[in-house]
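= Protein in question =
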Amino acid sequence: MKILLDTHALVWAAVDPDRLSERAEEVIVDSRNDVYVSAVSAWEIAIKRAKGLLRFPDLDDRVLRALRFMELPVSIHHGSAVGRLPIHHRDPFDRMLVAQARSESMTIVTRDSMITAYDVRTCW
């Protein structure tokens, strides 16, 4: 299965896995799954760090490799797909994650109930 981590799931998986649901943790650690982190999560983390809302290291290849996660870049196709989404959720980061997951046939690991309003597979 191809998994895309919502930003909070990424942060919790990295520094506080006890905050993950049992199912989310199972999916993330299952070596049969490909676990991706979107470039948009790095952007969201950087903004929240700059505002003093989050203490988390910059995402880089070393951090992703240590966690066995892969990078998912944001493409023009993903950007265009956001514009075709209904406005169930106003958070631009989450809307991009939904567009990416739909475009790439991924399941989003998230506890955000607003994301489930979209036609996208989720897991928590």
User: Anything to note?
Assistant: Residues 25 and 102 are 22 Å apart (CA to CA).
